[in-house]
Design brief:
With 106 residues, this protein is mostly beta strands. It is built from no helices and 6 strands. The relative contact order is 0.24.
């Protein structure tokens, strides 16, 4: 059973854009915003340049209205979620389940 969709999540895509000096930079651009359910699955520690850093894994459920892949990321306010996997458990239900880790995609 799908729980309440109470979070407005924005799908973002990495794009190359021209900078002021004539070069190219990569930036994240919004693609679409949808209502979603977000459930914490558990956490782990990962190595970072500053030592060990806690990371939480989430399952994010949303309607299948846009193509979402691990090349995208999700944003909830200031929080960023790197997409690890996308599943359409029951395509007829019209929902997809996204496994994500809070933090920037690597």
């Amino acid at each position: 059973m799908i729980g309440p969709m109470r979070h407005r999540v924005t799908i973002e895509s990495k794009e190359s854009v021209a900078d002021e000096g004539g070069g190219v930079i990569e930036t994240w651009m919004p693609v679409a915003t949808f209502w979603a359910e977000i459930d914490a699955l558990g956490g782990e520690e990962v190595s970072s340049g500053e030592g060990r850093e806690p990371r939480t894994r989430y399952e994010i459920t949303m309607r299948i209205e846009a193509e979402v892949t691990p090349a995208h990321r999700l944003r909830l306010g200031e929080r960023i979620f790197a997409i690890l996997a996308v599943r359409e458990d029951v395509p007829q239900s019209g929902y997809q389940r996204i496994t994500a880790m809070q933090g920037e995609p690597s």
